[in-house]
Design brief:
The complex is a heterodimer. By secondary structure, chain A is mostly helical. Chain A folds into two domains: 3-91, RNA polymerase sigma factor, region 2, helix turn helix motif (Rna Polymerase Sigma Factor, Chain: A, Orthogonal Bundle); 95-181, Arc Repressor Mutant, subunit A. Chain A has helices spanning 3-18, 22-44, 49-64, 74-91, 95-107, 112-123, 127-130, 134-146, 150-157, 161-181. In chain A, helix 6 (112-123) packs across helix 8 (134-146). By secondary structure, chain B is mainly α. Chain B has one domain (32-117, 129-207). In chain B, helix 5 (92-114) packs antiparallel against helix 8 (183-207) and helix 6 (129-148) runs parallel beside helix 8. Chain B is elongated and about 75 Å long. Chain B starts with a helix and ends in an 11-residue tail after the last helix. Classes of the chains: A mainly alpha, B mainly alpha.
Chain lengths: 184, 218
């Protein structure tokens, strides 16, 4: 299926969804799930938060469906929402923390270094994260992907907590710019 | 994918039809025109405009240019605000151009401190121009927010800030005709209250976030 035919089909399905057609809407969301998942995976790698992000994006598409204008292209509308939700989910990401806590409490399986390298190997699959500076990437991985608290990350990086916060903030801002510049 | 399937099933169950999307440019123009009308009528009702102000627009090209630049900047920022309420309708270039126009307009009054477009005078001075600018902006901000929150602003605070800037600057611009012309007075009594509406609008938007429930009741 070509990009152009996808565009036209999604636009038509969304128009039908706006008119209340349930089956077309279900089909559209099912197709978009795979597209969103691939989009995020190609940029962020196989990260844990992607599942959340796909769901958040589907809900946002549902809430924003009345703003889709069939005279405009569907893809820019779709990916504007997805990009926004990706950054939003990343910013509010704290579920990974619970995963790390569980390891601490129950298994003590992975060493801290081991977990970091695990995340870094996942990271290598995400092209957009590689564009960050090593300092920003490190702060982002430790807090948002591995799940360390700001204090733990600061201790690990031998910098102050405010410096970690600044690095995370800048990393997310940079990701936002990179995603916005990303042509879909 | 099971989670996704059940989410999709929930979202598409009892799907309610939604109204067709508004033409965002027309909606922005409608808000702008009604707001401008509201401001002009109120200012005229609350006191006389500066004698000879309209004649100055014709006779002093720099004053006319200054006013037209202000009008263009406000209109552009207003369009940015409304476009920001539709995903992908606002490009960063369009947004940046509006801000640039606004800065260029405001720079006219800074230049005016040294070389004013009109001979500074206290003719037409209004007693409460600062307060008037603030008060006339508030209904504009609220009505604008009421419209944009029905859409889907991805950055609601930024959208509210643009809207409040346009709303604050509309009465500020008309005060150049209605009140005395003196650049330092313009900056402190017309432009400043207009700019102050930006944090006011952002604060309102922060506490009055769009209620994003499921349109089909899910």
């Amino acid at each position: 299926m070509t990009r152009g035919s996808d565009e036209q089909r999604w636009s038509r399905l969304m128009m039908n969804a706006q008119a209340g057609n349930e089956s077309d809407y279900r089909l559209l969301l099912t197709e978009l799930t795979a597209v969103i998942y691939n989009f995020l995976r190609s940029r962020f790698g196989d990260q844990h938060f992607i599942e959340d992000c796909v769901q958040e994006s589907l809900i946002a598409i549902h809430q924003a469906r009345h703003t889709y204008d069939p005279q405009r292209n569907f893809r820019p509308w779709l990916f504007a929402i997805v990009r926004h939700k990706a950054i939003d989910t990343l910013r509010n990401q704290n579920r990974r923390k619970k995963v790390v806590d569980n390891y601490h409490d129950e298994l003590h399986v992975l060493s801290q270094a081991g977990r970091q390298s695990e995340a870094e190997s996942e990271l290598s699959q995400g092209d957009i994260l590689v564009s960050l500076s090593p300092q920003h990437r490190e702060a982002l991985i430790l807090t948002k992907f591995i799940g360390y608290s700001i204090a733990e990350a600061a201790e690990k990086l031998c910098i102050s907590e405010s410096a970690v916060k600044v690095r995370i903030h800048r990393a997310i801002h940079k990701l936002q710019l990179l995603l916005e510049a990303d042509e879909q | 994918m099971n989670n996704h399937d059940s989410l999709i099933a929930n979202l598409s169950r009892n799907l309610a039809p939604v109204p067709p999307p508004p033409n965002i440019n027309k909606l922005a123009m409608l808000w702008f025109c009604l707001s401008a009308f509201f401001v002009v009528v109120l200012i005229h009702l609350m006191g006389p405009v500066r004698p000879g102000a309209f004649l100055q627009l014709v006779e002093k090209p720099r004053f006319l240019l200054e006013s037209l630049l202000g009008l263009a900047a406000i209109l552009w920022v207003c369009q940015s605000a409304f476009r920001g309420a539709i995903p992908a309708a606002l490009t960063s270039r369009f947004y940046a151009f509006g801000i640039m126009l606004m800065i260029l307009w405001l720079a006219q009054y800074l230049t005016g401190l040294v070389s004013p477009a009109l001979e500074p005078s206290m003719l037409g001075e209004r007693d409460h121009c600062f307060l008037e600018t603030v008060i006339y902006s508030l209904p504009l901000i609220l009505s604008g927010l009421l419209l944009v929150r029905r859409l889907y602003p991805l950055r609601p605070i930024r959208t509210a800030m643009s809207l409040s800037l346009a709303a604050g600057m509309l009465p500020a611009l008309y005060m150049q005709l209605a009140c005395m012309y003196e650049p330092s007075h313009i900056l402190t009594h017309h432009i400043l209250p207009g700019l102050l509406m930006v944090p006011v609008g952002a604060t309102i938007a922060m506490f009055w976030r769009p209620h994003r429930d499921m349109p089909n009741g899910n």
